[in-house]
Specification:
Blueprint (H helix, E strand, L loop, with lengths): L6 H9 L29 E12 L4 E12 L2 H6 L8 E11 L4 E8 L5 E3 L5 E4 L2 E5 L6 E7 L2 E9 L4 E2 L6 E3 L5 E17 L10 E15 L8 E9 L4 E8 L5 E9 L5 E4 L5 E4 L3 E3 L6 E3 L2 E5 L4 E7 L5 E4 L5 E12 L3 E8 L12
Antiparallel strand pairs: 1-2, 1-13, 2-3, 3-4, 5-6, 6-7, 7-8, 8-9, 9-12, 10-12, 11-12, 12-13, 14-15, 14-25, 15-16, 16-17, 18-21, 19-20, 21-22, 22-24, 23-24, 24-25
Length: 364
């Protein structure tokens, strides 16, 4: 994507100075190199995303999400808003805990206008206030720390297989009408640490050990998410050690404009999936948010014939919505799910913009 500096920005060069933007040249396509590429990039948009399932020794079950978004100010905003002449980029964070035993979901959001923040260009280290994710002392694992809604989590997530590089070439995934994205995952990470709460001051509560499994996604590039009507994303971890990632980009009519994914074998091979390789069919079950009015699909049959996948994906709790309009202007459902059928397991599903385009069961 190439953008010419607008007149107002050129004028600002004379008056106060206007630094060249990362939007001025197409973002380069090079081979992914890890662990270097776990760090921050000078890309127009980037996010780091962790979700997982946790359990205490006495069987209490939880799920969690921690996401950091880093975005540079687009040229049109840098030229139109005087503050954009001085602010180069911003960082936003979203976090959630689902207490499955209590059937309770809590969420929070932060942006760097109110909190100190940063993202290292050298290694994994990103934070907004005291919500942070960084390389652990072993040089491999990810250490997460955050508190939200009366719960506090301190976790170490350790990859159990090589990173999955989605797309072709490896690590470059098409995003339908939005362009292409670098896309790297750790599809199975052993999670260990502690949870505190629920209580008013979660950090002061006694710590309870937890263990479980997690999933990590990292995407960056110059793709445009504002080109999507919405998307549905599935991250499924089967009990036999394999995983599948699938995503659907929705068009104006509510149908799917494009689709792709990956199947990761128990041994760690990442195999690309094209649109004709799988089928995702909502069963017709829905959940309507009492807070935003969004109508979401709430159950799916997923079939990947070549890998013997024929499963039913069911939310573990209906109310797992993230109303992040205060930071990203997006309402989305980010939820822990159970996988039943030929390949049982657990997973997470993300559904965006169903407040703007409510789900109708007749749509496929």
């Amino acid at each position: 994507m190439r953008v010419v500096l607008p007149f107002a920005c050129a004028l600002a060069l004379v008056v106060v100075g206007c630094a060249p933007s990362v939007f001025d040249q197409p973002y380069p396509v090079v081979a992914v190199e890890l662990p270097r590429d776990d760090a921050s990039h000078p890309a127009p948009i980037e996010w780091w995303y962790w979700v997982g399932h946790l359990e205490t020794d006495d069987g209490r079950a939880f799920a969690f999400q921690l996401t950091f978004f880093e975005a540079y100010v687009p040229p049109e905003m840098r030229s139109a808003v005087p503050l954009g002449w001085f602010i180069e980029k911003g960082i936003v964070a979203h976090a959630a805990v689902t207490d499955l035993g209590e059937e309770r979901h809590v969420m929070g959001q932060r942006f760097d206008g109110y909190y100190q923040s940063g993202a290292s260009p050298i290694d994994l280290a990103v934070y907004v206030g005291d919500w942070r994710a960084e390389r652990d002392d072993d040089g491999v694992s990810h250490a997460l720390s955050f508190a939200v809604g009366g719960y506090a989590l301190d976790l170490v997530l350790t990859p159990e297989k090589p990173a999955a590089l989605h797309g072709d070439p490896p690590g470059i995934q098409t995003m339908g009408p939005g362009g292409v994205s670098y896309y790297v995952s750790h599809t199975r990470m052993a999670a260990a640490g502690a949870i505190r709460g629920p209580c008013a001051w979660a950090r002061a509560c006694p710590a309870t050990p937890v263990q479980g499994q997690a999933w990590f996604d990292h995407q960056w590039g110059d793709f445009r998410i504002d080109e999507f009507v919405g998307w549905d994303w599935f991250a499924l971890q089967f009990d036999d050690g394999a995983e599948v990632m699938l995503y659907l980009i929705r068009g104006d009519d509510g149908g799917y404009a494009s689709a792709a994914g990956s199947y990761v074998t128990a041994g760690g091979r990442t195999l690309p999936l094209l649109e004709d390789d799988f089928e995702i069919v909502p069963t017709g079950a829905t959940w309507t948010s009492p807070d935003t009015g969004a109508v979401y699909p709430a159950e799916w049959r997923i079939v990947v014939p070549v890998h013997d996948v024929d499963v039913l994906v069911v939310p573990l709790l209906a109310a797992q919505e993230m109303d992040t309009r205060a930071t990203t202007r997006i309402v989305y459902w980010e939820g822990a799910v159970e996988v039943r059928g030929s390949r049982p397991g657990l997973g997470f599903v993300e559904l965006t913009n169903y407040d703007r385009q409510p789900f109708e069961s007749r749509r496929r």
